[in-house]
Amino acid sequence: MQPLIAPSILSADFARLGEEVQDVLEAGADVVHFDVMDNHYVPNLTIGPMVCKALRNYGISAPIDVHLMVKPVDRIIPDFAKAGASYITFHPEASEHIDRTLQTIKEHGCKAGLVFNPATPLHYLDHVMDKLDVILLMSVNPGFGGQSFIPSTLEKLRQVRQRIDASGREIRLEVDGGVNADNIKDIAAAGADMFVAGSAIFNQPSYADAISKMRQQISQ
Ligand code: DX5
Ligand code: ZN
């Protein structure tokens, strides 16, 4: 599958969010990564469906990848689907009924995925591979941008890549946290094909340069 670069708007200037998202898409991004934090499941508070809808109303037509770091999960899903989410991913620990939550996402017409924290075991994949469009491995503990990539994620990526390949299904393998132009090559080699990067893009003077450096690294 074609690699996808998904800038995390957590590191964007929220006062100018529409422009920031437009800029980063014009700079070559494929997907908008949208971090939803509730100050309960994770120790930070960010944005909800109204902001997703506002981006759609502003004219953003690229896929929006909603990463839910909220508990409970289920009741916010219809709101995000109506607000224009393309992908909705959630942490299995935050859902009482993982299979039901996945079904709810799909019934609302979105692509569904599970997110694994660095220490979350992969057994949550065991009975739901047929319902997944994406598997997201966190390479930092969720809650904040600008943290360092946790190296043990590489081995975990390799394990998930094997499981995806064995399933024969088209499931994206996404990685989120501390991704930058220096480590993205190893991350791609471990099997990822969807790369979230917040600070490594939005803290750079040129988003286009930042994104094209990443693409160069993964196309070599
Ligand atoms: C962390 C978020 C990430 C984060 C990535 O909880 O899920 O999407 O914003 O930011 P960087 O790339 O700066 O680690
Ligand atoms: Zn995220």
TrEMBL record:
InterPro entries: Aldolase_TIM (IPR013785), Ribul_P_3_epim (IPR026019), Ribul_P_3_epim-like (IPR000056), RibuloseP-bd_barrel (IPR011060)
Binding site for a divalent metal cation: H33, D35, H67, D176
Stored Pfam families: Ribul_P_3_epim
Domain of life: Bacteria
UniProt key word Isomerase: yes
Note describing how the cofactor binds: Binds 1 divalent metal cation per subunit.
Keyword Manganese: yes
Binding site for substrate: S8, H67, G143, F144, G145, G146, D176, G177, G178, G198, S199
Annotated pathway: Carbohydrate degradation
PROSITE patterns referenced in this protein's UniProt entry, alphabetically: RIBUL_P_3_EPIMER_1, RIBUL_P_3_EPIMER_2
Cellular-component GO terms for this entry: cytoplasm
Alphabetical GO biological process terms: pentose catabolic process; pentose-phosphate shunt
Essential cofactor(s): Fe(2+); Mn(2+); Zn(2+); Co(2+)
EC number(s) per entry: 5.1.3.1
Keywords carried by this UniProt record: Carbohydrate metabolism, Cobalt, Isomerase, Manganese, Metal-binding, Zinc
Catalytic activity, as annotated: D-ribulose 5-phosphate = D-xylulose 5-phosphate
Main EC class the enzyme belongs to: isomerase
List of catalytic residues: D35 (proton acceptor), D176 (proton donor)
GO molecular function: D-ribulose-phosphate 3-epimerase activity; metal ion binding
Entry function: Catalyzes the reversible epimerization of D-ribulose 5-phosphate to D-xylulose 5-phosphate.
Family classification: Belongs to the ribulose-phosphate 3-epimerase family.
Protein's UniProt name: Ribulose-phosphate 3-epimerase
Organism: Idiomarina aquatica
